Structure to design on (147 residues):
């Protein structure tokens, strides 16, 4: 019988099957958001992001580094989509908006009302968006430095 537990850097163990199941659920929910996304959803999603990030920032005042990083990444993605001078194809914009829409969902793979743990899947989805669009983010960062 194999041991399916992993120990994180704080000595806590996690069942790898459970983590894989949560990641699969987050991926499925993200893909559903992405498929349902329309160009007219852009303003609504971007309009809801500041309130949600402020609420999360209020919860993270005890210097949770991972939450601060998540907030910076969401801020960067939101800026990249909002910046009308920066050219971003709809496919890339849809991926960003899909990730941001997933972040806005209060009842996703791990409900957001569970303190801090509720944002693990949100962080995973945002990390996936960052990986998928690494070249666009680098291009945007260079664009901002040259403006």
């Amino acid at each position: 019988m194999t041991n399916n537990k992993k120990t994180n850097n704080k000595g806590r163990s996690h069942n790898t099957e459970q983590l894989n199941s949560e990641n699969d659920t987050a991926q499925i929910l993200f893909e559903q958001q992405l498929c349902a996304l329309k160009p007219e959803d852009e303003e609504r999603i971007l309009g809801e992001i500041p309130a949600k990030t402020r609420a999360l920032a209020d919860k993270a005042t005890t210097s949770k580094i991972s939450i601060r990083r998540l907030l910076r990444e969401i801020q960067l993605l939101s800026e990249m989509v909002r910046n009308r001078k920066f050219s971003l194809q709809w496919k890339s914009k849809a991926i960003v908006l899909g990730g941001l829409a997933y972040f806005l969902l209060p009842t996703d793979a791990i409900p957001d009302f569970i303190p801090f743990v509720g944002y693990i899947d949100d962080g995973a989805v945002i990390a996936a968006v960052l990986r998928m669009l690494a070249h666009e983010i680098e291009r945007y960062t260079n664009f901002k430095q040259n403006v």
Notes: Confidence is low (pLDDT under 50) at residues 1-16.
